[in-house]
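Lab notes, practical 5.
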Amino acid sequence: FKFYDGYSIPKVKRLDEYIDYVDKFPLIDPPQIFGLHSNADITYSTNRTKSMLEKIIHIQPKEASSNISGIETRDKIVYNLANDMLIKLPKNFIQHEVREKLINMGILNPMIIFLCQEIYRIDRVIRTVRNSLNDLQLAINGIIILNDSLRQILDSIYDGRVPIDWVN
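Output from the prediction step:
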């Protein structure tokens, strides 16, 4: 009977020989033993690292106790980042103008159909980002309530990640 990588059951009669033989096995089983590709180990390590780093970022303190020696607070940093993003964000598409231009280019052309779909998608993303950044600034200023969605956006911007609401 053969195990992976040439290991086989030895013909031994004493318990200590079995223990010595088992101790020679590798500590980490390769993915091939489970019928997986060798890239499965890479994917596992990548996912484990991402999970660990997300947990480290998640447990970091989120609130500053006070403004010590001119250091900006977390809310002020996020407010400035949101303001900068709003300035750089392109204007919303005007749907009827886009439709007219696409009709002039030949609406039944497959590339035009694809372009139309992509324009609608990017317009939806631009509107979502603009609305959430405006709401976030209002919440930081205390004008509206900071709900869970805005809290997640605030945390993501502060941590340098893309907010989940923007990915859809």
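Observations recorded by the TA: The CA atoms of residues 98 and 105 lie 11 Å apart. The mean pLDDT is 84.
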